[in-house]
């Protein structure tokens, strides 16, 4: 509890008057100049309730003392009342600029001084209590926020693991063991980063891109529901079989909705968009909803373009890989369907990085899952 008052005045008579007014409620310390005052402040900083400070003093005046107290941050902790008979307005302004709490004019008015000192001491002590509570609450909130961040990071990791696991299940059902999903994620990231740079109106951020890239692994998860007799058929599909194959977009949406309660909302949002709409085309010629133009979610447009590029450049049991330059030109010509003009601009900008993303690593073959006309 702060219970000390420091009275600073070069006149002993003035110090005695103030001490007699306050000694019943406070332990009074005295200083005859600014230098001694600063020494006493340093020694008693945690116990001082207030400082009554004269302006005109030898060795170091009151304004200089205020300057030192301000630098140390003491002004915010201890109320300082200037004790003076000076009428210089400029001097008064200087003191208030340093953060004093009030003025006491000479000659002293005993009852008024006592009331003003008590009021300020109470005010500052309440302020200190509130500040302490605020700091404690801030520390508690920061700790809670840190724990929430850690939990969110674990949840995101779990989301990604579930997504990768579901995506891998589709590949394991194919006759070809490959890294289609890995390449789709790389290609989607490249295209998304160029889109963020060239077209900020889409509102892409690094965080959104990370989520879209992760969700891209689920683009064909609906093929889990396609019978082996169709999914693994070595020959050409009949029109009826092809229509059934195309239903993997809707089946994927159903699968994601079935486990949505275990995921973050943003993962669910992008996963649903990508599963259902990654075969839509900008001219309305895609499926299942024949969406047109910007009706198609951006996430699905990005994955669709990545899927088309990987489909051309990947080797299959029924076809050889198309060279990257030829695949690039085929997509620009519209041989694989119509894509957004903006995405085509991003595709041109990202040409080199896209080629690097499909480059075989560690002697692996760039093979992809069997599809017929990119279903």
How would you characterize the overall build of this protein?
The protein has about 375 residues and is an alpha/beta fold. It folds into two domains: about 5-135, Response regulator (Rossmann fold, 3-Layer(aba) Sandwich), CATH 3.40.50; about 175-355, Hypothetical protein af1432, CATH 1.10.3210. The chain has 15 helices and five strands. The protein has helices at about 10-20, 35-45, 60-70, 90-95, 110-175, 180-200, 205-215, 230, 240-245, 250-260, 265-275, 300-315, 325-335, 340-350, 350-355; strands at about 5-10, 25-30, 50-55, 80-85, 100-105. Helix 3 links the parallel strand 3 (about 50-55) and strand 4 (about 80-85).
- How many extended strands? 5
Oligomeric state: single chain
Shape: rod-shaped
Domain count: 2
The first-to-last residue Cα distance is 77 Å
The CATH H-level superfamily of the largest domain is Hypothetical protein af1432
Query: Main sheet?
Result: 5 strands, parallel
Please tell me the CATH architecture of the largest domain by its name: Orthogonal Bundle
CATH topology of the largest domain: Hypothetical protein af1432
Overall helicity? 55-70%
Note poorly predicted spans: 362-374
Order of strands, main sheet, comes to: 2-1-3-4-5
């Amino acid at each position: 509890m702060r219970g000390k008052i420091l009275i600073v005045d070069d006149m002993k008579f003035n110090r005695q008057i103030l001490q007699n007014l306050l000694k019943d409620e406070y332990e009074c310390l005295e200083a005859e100049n600014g230098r001694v005052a600063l020494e006493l402040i340093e020694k008693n900083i945690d116990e001082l309730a207030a400082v009554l400070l004269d302006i005109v003093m030898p060795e170091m005046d009151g304004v200089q003392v205020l300057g030192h107290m301000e630098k140390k941050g003491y002004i915010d902790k201890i109320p300082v009342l200037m004790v003076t008979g000076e009428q210089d307005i400029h001097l008064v302004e200087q003191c208030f600029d340093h953060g004093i709490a009030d003025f006491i004019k000479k000659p002293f008015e005993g009852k008024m001084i006592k009331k003003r000192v008590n009021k300020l001491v109470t005010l500052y002590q309440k302020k200190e209590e509130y500040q302490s509570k605020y700091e404690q609450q801030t520390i508690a909130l920061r700790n809670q926020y840190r724990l929430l961040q850690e939990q969110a990071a674990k949840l995101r990791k779990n989301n990604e693991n579930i997504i990768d696991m579901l995506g891998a299940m589709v590949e394991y059902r194919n006759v070809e063991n490959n890294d289609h999903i890995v390449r789709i994620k790389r290609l989607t990231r490249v295209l998304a980063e160029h889109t963020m740079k060239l077209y900020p109106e889409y509102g892409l951020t690094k965080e959104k891109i990370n989520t879209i890239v992760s969700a891209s692994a689920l683009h064909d998860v609906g093929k889990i529901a396609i019978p082996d007799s169709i999914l693994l058929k070595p020959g050409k599909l009949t029109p009826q079989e092809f229509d059934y194959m195309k239903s993997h977009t809707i089946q994927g949406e159903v699968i994601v909705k079935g486990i949505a309660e275990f995921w973050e909302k943003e993962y669910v949002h992008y996963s649903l968009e990508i599963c259902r709409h990654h075969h839509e085309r900008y001219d309305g010629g895609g499926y299942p909803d024949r969406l047109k133009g910007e009706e198609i979610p951006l996430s699905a447009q990005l994955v669709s373009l990545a899927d088309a590029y990987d489909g051309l450049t990947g080797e299959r049991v029924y076809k050889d890989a198309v060279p990257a330059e030829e695949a690039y030109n085929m997509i620009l010509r519209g041989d694989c369907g119509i894509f957004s003009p903006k995405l085509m601009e991003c595709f041109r900008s990202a040409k080199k990085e896209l080629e690097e993303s499909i480059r075989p690593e560690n002697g692996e073959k760039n093979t992809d899952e069997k599809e017929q006309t990119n279903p």
